[in-house]
Design goal:
The structure holds two protein chains of two kinds.
Chain A lengths: L2 E10 L2 E11 L4 E5 L6 H9 L6 E6 L2 E2 L10 E4 L11 H11 L4 H14 L15 H14 L4 E5 L7 H18 L2 E6 L2 H7 L2 E6 L2 E6 L1 H6 L4 H7 L3 E3 L2 E3 L4 E4 L7 E11 L2 E8 L8 E6 H6 L7 E6 L5 E3 L6 H7 L8
Parallel strand pairs in A: 3-8, 3-9, 6-7, 7-8
Antiparallel strand pairs in A: 1-2, 1-4, 4-5, 9-10, 11-12, 12-18, 13-17, 14-15, 14-17, 15-16
Helix pairs in contact in A: 2-3, 2-4, 3-4
Chain B lengths: L4 H33 L4 H9 L1 H34 L5 H7 L2 H4 L2 H12 L7 H6 L8 H27 L2 H8 L4 H30 L2 H7 L9 H10 L3 H28 L8
Helix pairs in contact in B: 1-13, 2-13, 3-8, 3-10, 3-12, 6-8, 6-11, 8-10, 8-11, 9-10, 10-13, 12-13
The chains are: A alpha+beta, B mainly alpha.
Chain lengths: 342, 276
């Protein structure tokens, strides 16, 4: 294990940011800490880095107890959301900072810096000031700077949060490729489920200071163990007391086994996708069931506004039973609004 | 926007008002000091500058200003870091206290220092004097008074810059392995260097010109505790052309040093936007 977190707790006044967290992060993996804002994931990352002190528990980095070590002795690379570029230093001096502090010979620093600038495709900007770079370039510089010290672990706090959508997608594909090349144990914090699903080997879902679930992206998406994880990782709708994914529903214009009858109340086409609201015949009080399918399927089945339909979850659909204690509205309040991606 | 006649008129009127205001308040009076200084030619000026009292007064002023600036730089940076980087009980009170020297009359500052440090009547002064350190009517008192009145200038320049740069750069430096002192020297100090330099020059200019507080604590004895500003006052009140030329000469030089310092710093300081 590269990072071993045991019983880590942190309070800010009365607010419990982390509630006795236990977590192991394997060597060489790219792990995402995913969760809504204020859920404690950044605090956990900063505790690993030594930028924040835990109230309780311990942190081990590569077998060494780092709980009491100050940040400068942990050999951890940290990348900030807003780059934290040293504004008065050139790009090359930014990248070489950690080595200069370590009093490495000038020649060695120059060689390592130029190697890293190649890696992040910033060689031609070596003599510029950070202010003369774009946001994406600054973040790549910050990454090279963190990698320069050959960190035991690389920690990224919402690394793409300040960038616009296109650059964000580009950079996260690039981060994935970089990680496959460099293989340093990497942990990044994000509140964007798409980003986590796209890039990470392992996802740790954190909510209200607790770990909800840990696993590879597919497992979390297909087999969520809680309503929160289910609704945070993707779109959900309610059918027969369960949360299901709207694309995991089988819909026909004739009755079939175990199917619930209803009527299409809204028919909405968005690009290649068709979104339906189905009002169930049995339960008029319940909110309509959301069904999504491709446009081709909808056309083949002759679906349209007002058409009577029957629906049921497909076999192997991800399902989570809604606990009666928590009303569904509470879940949607907790969850970050679904991105337009779905 | 159209450059209509009305617009042009307003613009010219505004310029006239601003320039006129500055002229009558600053430029003309200061120019008159220069004119008075050289009213009898260069020879009396040079003679004035050769008087041992004048030389002594300027030496005392410069050394007091130097120490006051050194003290203000060290404590100014320290207090600024404390105010911006840490939360502690009494921080708001400290923040308000920093401005006291700007709002309280220097005379009051002088009296207050005498109350504490006077050898005969002060709270601390007696003990210090027995220990061999005379504060009031001596250079230490002059330095203290000067440092007191110019203290906010460094702090008020640095604090907004520290607030603007935030702590992320310092955290990044620490995570890259820099110990506190190196983080300060390599990251914090370069980030605030222009603000600090500007504060130091303002503080120097203010220190050279301090009069009220210094008059109370120094006693103004020629060749012992008389600073340049006190010398100007004394000579100005005496009769005779020599005395008044001496007063004007000293005043002119005081103004010249302050203005030069500001010009140098303004031309050195990069235009906003390039470097913070």
């Amino acid at each position: 294990m590269s990072i071993k977190i045991a019983g880590v707790g942190k309070r800010f006044g009365n607010f419990v940011a982390l509630d006795k967290i236990d977590l192991d992060i394997a060597t060489g993996e790219l792990t995402a800490l995913l969760g809504p804002s204020g859920g404690g994931k950044s605090t956990l990352l900063r505790i690993i880095a030594g930028l924040e002190v835990a109230d309780s528990g311990s942190v081990q980095i590569q077998g060494v107890d780092a709980t009491g070590l100050p940040a400068q002795k942990r050999n951890v690379g940290f990348v900030f959301q807003h780059y934290a570029a040293f504004r008065h230093l050139s790009v090359a001096n930014n990248v070489g900072f950690g080595l200069k502090v370590r009093k490495r010979p000038r020649k060695e620093i120059a060689a390592r810096v130029s190697e890293l600038l190649d890696l992040v495709h910033l060689s031609q900007f070596a003599d510029r000031l950070p202010a003369q770079l774009s946001g994406g370039q600054r973040q790549r510089m910050a990454l090279a700077r963190a990698l320069a010290i050959e960190p035991s672990v690389l920690l990224l706090d919402e690394p793409f949060g300040a960038l616009d959508a296109n650059v964000r997608k580009e950079l996260r594909a690039w981060l994935r490729r970089l990680h496959d090349e460099v293989h340093v144990t990497t942990v990044f914090v994000t509140h964007d489920q798409e980003e986590a699903l796209d890039v990470a080997d392992q996802i740790v879902v954190i909510n209200q200071g607790r770990i909800e679930q840990v696993g590879p992206p597919d497992e979390l998406y297909d087999h969520p163990t809680s309503e929160f994880v289910m609704s945070f990782l993707g779109p959900v709708t309610t059918l027969d007391g369960h949360l299901v994914r709207p694309h995991d529903l089988e819909i026909e214009t004739h009755p079939f086994d175990n199917a619930y009858p209803g009527r299409i109340e809204r028919f909405n086409r968005v690009g290649f996708e068709v979104r339906l609201d189905v009002r169930l015949a049995e339960d008029h009080e319940a909110p309509p069931v959301l069904v999504t399918l491709t446009r081709a399927e909808a056309t083949a089945k002759a679906l349209g506004l007002g058409v009577p339909v029957w629906l049921t979850p497909v076999t192997n659909a991800s399902k989570v039973r809604i606990s009666t204690a928590v009303p569904t509205s509470a879940i949607s309040d907790n969850a970050v609004p679904q991105p337009s991606f779905w | 926007m159209h450059d209509t006649a009305a617009h042009r008129l307003t613009r010219w009127a505004l310029r006239l008002i601003v320039v006129g205001y500055l002229f009558f308040l600053v430029i003309w009076p200061v120019a008159l000091v220069a004119a008075k200084t050289f009213s009898n030619g260069l020879a009396p000026v040079i003679n004035a500058l050769r008087q041992p009292e004048v030389i002594f007064a300027f030496e005392l002023t410069l050394s007091a200003a130097w120490w006051a600036v050194v003290i203000n730089t060290i404590f100014g940076v320290g207090i600024s870091l404390l105010l911006v980087r840490y939360t502690f009980p009494g921080r708001r009170a400290l923040n308000a206290m920093v401005d006291v020297p700007l709002s309280v009359s220097p005379i009051v500052v002088g009296l207050a220092l005498v109350l504490v440090y006077s050898g005969r009547t002060g709270w601390l002064g007696g003990g210090l004097e027995r220990a061999g350190l005379q504060v009031i009517y001596a250079p230490p008192g002059i330095i203290m008074a000067t440092a007191f009145v110019s203290m906010p200038l460094v702090i008020r320049e640095i604090v907004p810059v520290l607030q603007e740069i935030g702590t992320e750069q310092e955290q990044a430096a620490r995570s890259l392995g820099a110990p506190s002192l190196q983080t300060f020297g390599r990251i914090t100090l370069p980030a605030i260097r222009w603000a600090l330099l500007y504060g130091v020059v303002l503080s120097l200019a203010r220190s050279l010109g301090e009069f009220g507080a210094v008059k109370i604590v120094s006693g103004g004895v020629a060749m012992r505790t008389q600073t340049a500003t006190l010398l100007v006052e004394e000579r100005y009140q005496q009769f005779g052309v020599v005395n008044s030329i001496t007063a004007y000469t000293a005043a002119f030089i005081l103004a010249l040093i302050a203005v030069l310092a500001l010009i140098i710093i303004t031309s050195l300081r990069p235009s906003k936007g390039l470097t913070p």
